[in-house]
Write a structure and sequence with these properties.
Elements (H helix, E strand, L loop, with lengths): L6 E2 L22 E2 L12 E3 L1 H7 L4 E2 L4 H11 L23 H5 L5 E3 L4 E6 L5 H8 L3 E6 L12 E4 L10 H13 L3 E4 L1 H9 L4 E17 L5 E12 L8 E3 L1 E3 L7 E4 L4 E4 L14 H14 L1
Parallel strand pairs: 2-4, 6-7, 6-8, 8-9, 9-15
Antiparallel strand pairs: 1-3, 5-7, 10-11, 10-13, 12-14, 14-15
Helix pairs in contact: 5-6
Length: about 300
């Protein structure tokens, strides 16, 4: 059942960041659901899901057997698809052929906050909650485009954001990350940021058959019995076996043993494939932002 909460108000907080949204636009090309709720009710709802989609010119259909569709995808893996109306047809679009990061990254350098720790946020499709989680930890966040040479900035740490698509499309970002690794200041990567840090460190990635897309993926911290429930949304993964001797897995996905994070054995660099800033939750791993700030504080001593 989709639509029963409606869509929240478009309000911003003190830094100009939306209170209830993770992006400034809808990024899906279409929505396919089983049961649509025509009545919505929520304390901060402003409009219905249908009204929001129409306003943003995004098509949606309901009364589809999504369980049957899911079974096909579970058997065949991720597939291209399209929504057709009556006898109308459209060209098949393959997003894997495009640099999706270039489409969603910020177009200009922006500065948020006036905290004591200067963090460069490399925006390859960053969720707003990454900004929120950094700003409430006494930081000044310098948000830059995916192809911006951030190593020329005066910074204390680097945040590599989440983002869509194939990490191999971001070769410019990878080259800048290599330079940041040489500089040696703390680096924290999330989702796509995990893959880009891994590639910059000499590793390689591969496309998952299904991808990880849910709020309930279990990830275990390597070397411990600590398992965390995480939010994930990615179609590629870093190959654990491709890591060089200086790096090691930080988290592993319990279900398929795929990589869920890496860390450098001696330097202040680490990343996660899941979303510790998860919004919506779970928020089990937000403490990793504290770990990042701690690394920055230690590096200043």
């Amino acid at each position: 059942m989709i639509g029963n909460y409606g869509v929240p108000k478009d309000e911003t907080e003190e830094h100009g960041i939306p209170l209830f949204y993770e992006s400034d636009q809808i990024h899906i090309s279409g929505l396919i659901i089983s049961d649509y709720s025509f009545e919505y009710s929520h304390w901060n709802a402003k409009s219905s899901l249908s009204e929001w989609l129409i306003k943003n010119e995004v098509p949606g259909i309901f009364d589809i057997d999504t369980r049957a569709l899911t079974k096909i995808l579970r058997e065949k893996g991720s597939m291209l698809g399209k929504i057709l109306i009556d006898d109308e047809d459209i060209d098949q679009y393959d997003p894997n052929q495009d640099n999706l990061v270039a489409q969603v990254s910020t177009k200009e350098r922006k500065v948020y906050g006036k905290g004591k720790h200067k963090v460069v946020l490399v925006d390859t499709g960053a969720k707003y909650n990454i900004l929120r989680c950094l700003l409430k930890r006494d930081t000044t966040v310098i948000q830059v485009p995916w192809d911006f040479d951030f190593t020329q900035e005066d910074y204390d740490g680097v945040m590599l954001s989440n983002g869509p698509g194939n990490p191999e499309m971001c070769s410019i970002t990878v080259e800048n990350i290599k330079k940041a690794i040489e500089i040696g200041k703390p680096i924290f990567g999330i989702c796509l940021g995990n893959q880009l840090l891994g590639i910059a460190a000499g590793g390689s990635t591969y496309k998952l058959k299904y991808g990880h897309r849910a709020h309930n993926h279990p990830a275990i911290r390597v070397g411990t019995n600590n398992c965390y429930i995480t939010s994930q949304n990615h179609g590629y993964a870093l190959d654990n076996d491709s890591l060089t001797d200086d790096w090691e897995p930080l988290f592993i996905h319990i279900n398929d043993q795929s990589n869920e994070g890496i860390r450098h054995k001696s330097k202040p660099f680490f990343s996660t494939q899941f979303h510790p800033e998860a919004s919506s939750g779970p928020t089990d791993t937000e403490f990793l932002f504290d770990d990042f700030i701690h690394l920055i504080e230690e590096s200043k001593k």
